[in-house]
Amino acid sequence: QVQLVESGGGLVQAGGSLRLSCAASGGTFSTSAMGWFRQAPGKEREFVAAVTGNGRYTNYAASAKGRFTISRDNARNTVYLQMNSLTPEDTAVYYCAADRTYYNLGYRPYDYWGQGTQVTVSS
Questions:
Q1: DSSP labels for 109-120?
Q2: Dist CA 83 CA 72 (whole Å)
Q3: 101, 118 Cβ separation under 8 angstroms
Q4: Structure letter (DSSP) for residue 41
Q5: pLDDT in the model for residue 1
Q6: Phi and psi, residue 89, nearest 5°
Q7: Are strands 18-25 and 78-83 parallel, antiparallel or unpaired?
Q8: Model confidence at 67: pLDDT above 90
């Protein structure tokens, strides 16, 4: 069973940056596509970014392009989400997700989910 633990959330002012981390255990990380999603209060969970198992390919939601960067360190079984130029609209619980396959760029459901980390951006 794959376990995912997110960290790095917190309170930041608009225009600031945060880096989220997601540590994976219990599976073969390097063969798992990984994704980040978020859910704001009163809204459905939405896709943010995804990366293939080897890190070669990435995909971003329109709201994340140019501001967020997803990356992974397979030696550390960790995926990151660097978030820059944050706005209050980025306030949400951010979830890490893992897929059983190496190639899922956010167009299919993921198999495993973390518990989420809160990101709050103040204006």
A1: --SEE---EEEE
A2: 14
A3: no
A4: T
A5: 85
A6: -70, -15
A7: antiparallel
A8: yes
Q: How many other C-beta atoms are found inside a 10 Å radius of the C-beta of residue 75?
A: 8
Strands 68-73, 10-13: parallel, antiparallel or unpaired by DSSP? unpaired
Classified as helix, coil or strand, 9 is coil
- Contact of 81 with 48, CB cutoff 8 Å: yes
DSSP 22: E
The answer to whether the beta carbons of residues 51 and 57 sit under 8 Å apart is: yes
Please tell me the distance from the alpha carbon of residue 81 to that of residue 123, in angstroms, as a whole number: 21
pLDDT in tens, 2-52: 999 999 999 999 999 999 999 999 988 989 999 999 999 999 999 999 999
Distance CA 12, CA 50 (A): 23
SS (H, E, C) 43-90: CCCEEEEEECCCCCCEEECCCCCCCEEEEEECCCCEEEEEECCCCHHH
- Do residues 51 and 79 make contact, with C-beta atoms less than 8 angstroms apart? yes
